[in-house]
Amino acid sequence: MNDLNVRAITEAERRVVYGLLVEALHAAPPDDATWGKVEGSFPADRKLAAFDGETPVGLTSSFATSIAVPGGKTLPAAAVDGVAVRADHTRRGVVTSLLTEQLRDCLRRGDLIAALHASEATIYGRFGYGAAVLGQSLRIVNARASLRPEAPSSGRVRLLDGDEAITRIPELYRRIGPHRPGMIERPDLWWPAYHNRLVRAGGGEHRVAVHTGPGGEDGFVVFRTSNQQAYDEPDFKVVLEVRDLHAADPAATTDLWRFLIGMDLVAEIRAPARPVDEPLRALLTDARAVQTTGVEDHNWLRLLDAGAALNARTYRDAPPVVLGLEDRLLPENTGAYRISADGVTRTDAPAQLQLTAEALAMLYLGEWTASALAGAGRITVTDPAALPAADELFRVGVRPWCGTYF
To answer: Model pTM?
Structure first.
């Protein structure tokens, strides 16, 4: 890496750096038409590249957002949305230099947390990221699925055309807000790259339906259908894939599922990365009509300012626990933290539980318990009484979820 230079990119370098990213993802470099569609969502700001001479050979990118944490606060965060290295420069420390510098850059900007969706699960732990949010992939067999009579309902669902979907859904998402730990705000630059291209007005294949309750529009779903009839299975078979489903309350969520399940000619619904505690089985007369086809790491977090991030969330009533944190890349975070229902303070007291930045990120939103991480060897226990106390302190009533691709 001594011959490579890591720095922020300039406005003039945006297109060539974007080409590096899409080539690393095994897609073709952008032509003029493609670049015209995406350049508004690919600003130079927050993009660091590794250069071999004048040629970019590696990239890491983020956008500014905020993330909900237990207790209801939202914290300034960086959503890491592009990490790439050119094929002829891999295994040379490019990613290490880029991600290390990015952590520092985000911290200087005031971000308390960084978040990413990991394309490879073995890369990011060494940079202090932990799999803090899980998601389940669901398969619903429509012929067997019907909602129980007592399932809540609060309004109606209607389809939008492509133009409406582009103009109405961003404001609706803002009104719904990040009401669950792990959810993020979607800034203006997110929508053209991730939403608009999916719906018909943007040339995509997806449709959008919106739910209207007593107080107005309060939920939406983005989905697409495809005929997956096979040579050895000649019957017409339409599969519906849920891309994006958010609602302000359980009744609106249930109405959206009722709409999808009741759609004519659909054989099954596939819904990746849904909340692991979504009560869909409890809504159906035949719970076996829903199958969990997988549980995956959905979002990875990294605490950039550990003290501020820990202090921003709330804790249950339990005896205080002293966590000892070792943070190799951000050593200012290293130290002991006294966690209690009243808040978090630095302390000179000996650590009862010792952990890394990666393990702390896994613990932070409440997806993992301290006992589970200790049992897996991810937390070193010096005081066994601290484990049940930490389990209770970090316990959450609603499992974390992100629900946003980036």
So the answer is: 0.94
